[in-house]
Amino acid sequence: MRTRDFIQALPKAELHLHFEGMVPWHLVQAHSEEPLPDTPPWWADDFRFDDFQDFTLAMKDCYGPVLTSVEHYQQVAQIAFGNLAAQNVRYVETSVAPNIALEQGLSLVDVIAAIKVVAPPTLTVAVFCGLARHNCHTLNDPIIQAVFSAPNLDGIDLHGDERLGDPAPFAEIFARARHLGLMTKAHAGELTGPQTIRDTLDLLQVTRIEHGTTAIEDEALLACLADEGITLDMCPTSNLKLCVVDSLENHPIRDFLRRGIPVTVNTDDPTVFGSSLTNELYLLAERLDFSPADLAQVQIAAFNVARLSDLQRAEVLAEIDQLVAETVFSIQ
Description:
This protein has 332 residues and is α/β, with parallel strands linked by helices. It has a single domain, classed as Alpha-Beta Barrel (TIM Barrel), CATH 3.20.20.140. The protein has helices at 3-9, 25-31, 52-63, 70-86, 98-103, 108-117, 142-148, 171-179, 194-204, 219-228, 236-241, 253-258, 270-273, 277-288, 292-304, 310-326, and strands at 12-18, 89-96, 124-132, 155-159, 183-188, 208-211, 231-234, 263-265.
């Protein structure tokens, strides 16, 4: 079986996907006041962002003109989810920045409902609200009240530039989220060293870290991640284009896998980084020598932490096991 055929047949889950970073490029073109190229410069294989601020400006150029109404949120979701379903993605978690929707005068309840209603029958969608580290909140802040008042929300995430905000101010919010039955996860170890990962785990009590790339610098932390089963939702192409790693071959995702740390692979912001989940998996096989069993293990780790029923999880894991058992391990 060819590598691409195996990856297509493999049931997949994407757990680290920012809604604002998945606005289809043709919609950006349609809503832009200026003519835009057929493909943005960031999609080039050799493109690297100068810094995180450069990246955030590119992000804003993509979502700013488009995410101005509930209808536009729905349109983005319908196109993006259709693309995921075509890749045989069965489960997706997407993080919506609540401040962006609220600044447009939109209801989070309506936005989340509009996103979920267009999910294809084969795709389970979980919606998170992503809070920015540099914006400290209390439980009484209007943004947090809006987040916790959305009955159709599945979880919260902490994202943004780690250098600009400590996780401590969010501890009470994350504790409240878990009390309400929401899932929690947080970005760490992308732009700063492993201490940020330690702080995030200790203060927010999460069991999932978005990125976690710099954990490779701390042997004691690596042992802790393995012992406690902390899942790292990793994004290789994102890390490359943001210069977190200097090459895909030097990305530590394989080292984490070998140490027994659960890792998933994701696109982060596909409109900006020019990637897809299928392509991320293919790069692991082509550039990091991931075997079919390795690729399957990455997906098993993702489904193990997904917000699915026990029956849904058992069925998809059985399907993965059967696919691996039937696959000739000399795929090309």
